Amino acid sequence: MDLGLEGLRVLITAGASGIGLHTARAFAAEGARVHICDIDEAAISAFRADNPDIGASLCDVADRDQVQALFDTALESLGGLDCLINNAGISGATAPVEQMDPADWDRCIAVTLTSQFNCTRLAVEPLKASANPSIINLSSAAGKFGFQFRSAYSAAKWGIVGFTKTIARELGPFGIRCNTILPGLVEGDRLTRVIAAKADALGKTYSEAETDFLAHASIKEMIDPRQLADMMLFLASPRGRTISGQAISIDADLQTLA
């Protein structure tokens, strides 16, 4: 299926690994022009070596000065912007709320939620000039359930849903559609670390904690990150032109989080 993405100008945060990496490669494979950023210098170096046709910048998206520099570079490189994908986020601390270090709370909110504001505010004007403008924000299944011992992460991911639905209403009159994706248990190193931390917090083995996570899904398997990329391709394509303000779960029908 030709999704009509040839030449689409796409900026992806946290694009050097994980979901962002799969997404960047998927858009590039469809003929889109892609620029990514990441905070991890080693990941950026590896990305540039493996993907020489995709632009890449080092950036902490929680830092507004760095985000401004990112947009200056990306907009010049891409010649404008058609799609912003706010993918950056961190797991945050695993701890009871009364034991959580306030610095850990602040950093999780800054990277996971406030970064989306930092990028979106700079994306609006160039998106207004696009014939096919969209914003895709990454939330999480933690954005619709309570998540024991992960209050900062869950608060940030719930916030993304509210942010997305609000900007969809604000930007709809300009033809800019805004959606958020709520992934479930996505395969990769990040989920491995989350499960390990939860196991430690509850005094369980890793295998026991993993079984607990999957027990709450109707389809008992982890999510392939390429499934998320496929959804983003569709949402950013002309075929998704009337899809906006939606919180789309790709989570094997999770009913709650362990």
UniProtKB/TrEMBL annotation:
UniProt cross-references to InterPro entries, sorted A to Z: NAD(P)-bd_dom_sf, Sc_DH/Rdtase_CS, SDR, SDR_fam
Family listed: Belongs to the short-chain dehydrogenases/reductases (SDR) family.
GO biological process, one term: monocarboxylic acid metabolic process
Coiled-coil region list: none
Protein name, entry field: SDR family oxidoreductase
Stored Gene3D superfamilies: NAD(P)-binding Rossmann-like Domain
Signal peptide boundaries: none
PANTHER family cross-referenced by the UniProt entry: 3-OXOACYL-(ACYL-CARRIER-PROTEIN) REDUCTASE, 3-OXOACYL-[ACYL-CARRIER-PROTEIN] REDUCTASE FABG
A Pfam short name: adh_short_C2
Protein source organism: Roseibium aggregatum
Domain of life: Bacteria
